[in-house]
Write a structure and sequence with these properties.
10-stranded antiparallel β-sheet; alpha+beta; homodimer; 19% helix; 4 helices; Pnp Oxidase, Chain A
Chain lengths: 206, 206
């Protein structure tokens, strides 16, 4: 897979040594996440909203109420910035200046496309499968009214940049002998034990 | 503590029943997080960047390189939107339409203030303490050059809104008997075991 051919204006400016345009890396960061922050502009002012998403090949799918401000703006062709960030750890250095954090992030700029017809049904199924986390399907699919109330958006992966920091502190040579704890406190988003809804009827699957 | 007196244009529009302007709730959501997504507008286009932050009373502190695009824009008085989101779980319903997620988010709109002088030293110490996670201090403080390269920004908590979803699926009555697993898969950001930097000199503290 070749790298993303991201335009200069959408490439990483700050600490470009941590930038990557590698397609497999971008996919892996997106595939690990559930919530993206979608920024758009309303009357000249920025708004960033957390949205559930799923990657579908070379695009990201979002869904939302047809009446929502984000959906209205994006359907209307407003530019978006999608950012997905995984915080992997706090990095404690031997100097305050070199304290840092480990993270993997992806930023995508562009304009969204409305997903309709059979593509919409497929997109909704992808979102549903992502929520379900491998559990067997069996939930009632959206009826006509529900599907009508839900807008599906496709955000193309064209103007894409990843930024990643890994590893331990990068201290100045002169600070290496300071008697202070230095290292990484790892962080991770983990799943807990599923909690079955009390009103449930008996089913075979956990 | 009285609620935030958030202007109408910055109140939650979508699913307002999940909105809150409660000060203690907003503080607790902010205090649990490490990374905020900061949206701002560059040449009419939205940008959302992940930034380390710490709450300081009725404001949020950010730091960044003086040369960074975000810092330049915010120091220049550009409006921001700060969003902090905790994903607490995936909610599996008995119908696709009612699948959801549990989350706690805070959104803040406004313009940042530059922090200077003694206030800047104090703000930098708050950021450092947040990274250190209760470990004893002892790292070398920023020297003059490092402090000069770092800009500290204060984002006032005035136009503030929280949005929270908790609990199990909210299914339609007609779907309650469907033989499908329904409930919540909890999610949580957890710390792992600290990994000491191999180049460290012996210290008493873990």
């Amino acid at each position: 897979m070749c790298d993303y051919q991201t335009s200069k204006s959408y490439r990483v400016r700050q600490a470009p040594k941590r930038a990557s345009y590698d397609r497999a890396l971008v996919h892996s960061i997106l595939d690990e996440g559930y919530v993206a922050h979608i920024a758009f502009v309303v009357d000249g002012l920025p708004v960033a909203l957390p949205m559930f998403y799923v990657r579908d090949g070379e695009s990201v799918l979002l869904h939302g109420s047809r009446k929502s401000r984000l959906v209205k703006h994006l359907v209307g062709g407003a530019p978006f910035c999608l950012t997905v960030t995984h915080l992997d750890g706090l990095v404690l250095a031997r100097s305050a200046f070199h304290h840092s954090m480990n993270y993997r992030s992806v930023m995508v700029h562009g304009r969204a496309e409305r997903v309709t017809g059979e593509e919409k049904t497929r997109a909704m199924a992808l979102i549903t499968a992502r929520v379900r986390q491998g559990r067997p399907s069996g939930e009632r699919p959206a009826n006509e009214q529900e599907a009508k109330a839900t807008e599906m958006l496709r955000l193309p992966l064209v103007e894409v940049a990843a930024k990643v920091r890994t590893g331990g502190p990068l201290d100045d040579e002169a600070d290496m002998a300071l008697p202070v704890w230095a290292g990484v406190i790892p962080m991770q988003l983990v799943f807990g034990e599923p909690v079955r809804d009390v009103a449930s009827v008996p089913v075979a699957v956990a």
